[in-house]
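Fold it.
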Amino acid sequence: MFLSANAGKRSLAVDLTHPDGLTALLGLAARSDVAVQSLRPGTAERRGLGYAALRERNPRLVYCSISGYGRVGPLADRPGYDPLLQGETGIMSVTGEPDGAPVRVGVSLIDQATGVWAALAIIAALHEGEGRELDLSLFETGVSLVPYHVMAYLATGETPGRHGTAFPLIVPYQAFTARDGELLVAAPNDRLFGALLGALDLPADPSFATNPDRVARREQVVARLGERFAEADVETWLERLAEAGVPAAPVNDVGQVAEHPQTHALGLLQQLPHPDAPDLVEVASPFSVDGERLLHRSPPPRLGEHSAEVLAEAGYSPEEIEGLFESGVIVGPAR
């Protein structure tokens, strides 16, 4: 988990319970553009690292707090973890098969989405050019990921359920089982549904002519398509659907994704030799700049690997840095 999330970063390991450690961090805040902290609400303030304390030293600082449930409300003091919030914000209630138990999304969806929201908020604040205090939480991110479900409930009073790979408002828009695996098919309008029937060599049915018709007769439509998909392999159907212009994709496992020619064509895998993992391969940043993949500049750091380097940049002398190492205020690799 650490290696996958921290390529390109530096590590300063400092004891914040020691006055000299707190002083070092405050000094860094005084010369920084952004400070991000993810302690429970109130903890940073008690440690002398709240927004007010840092803003005194740096009025233009963008200060971003990330918590589990936000800084106000009845749950503000509770710790937050991705699977807990997937359950509490309703994501699990709409994930899984209709007759099965709620299912956690298989990635740390809320953790990663909160990081993206934090980055967007920080960039906006930096663009504004003034010191700002930003607050985000896993709870708020979770709710933001189910907006149309929440709106539908508020409009109708009906609680949405689980639909497996399907989408409740469109048919067909889900996975089907072929002879050797599964593929996802998306025919979100009547023209594409007609093209899908043509690719499958199935006759048109007036009772399935429009999407509202198909939603009302979901079971019949899905059963008829499912019987046909089961008669051939995934690759056969993908080729025929592509020729017909019907959006479709295989259901790959992670190994297939790692070995996929599209993954390699895009340069999404980056080798970053690490002292403890010489064959380390990372997933690179998911965007390119001026036509070139944005690559990590360095492998994930070891604990405190850059403690001396960062403090030297902050104005500490070699003797002062050595004294902090000796007193245990900072840690790092053998010097």
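The first helix runs from residue 2 to 5.
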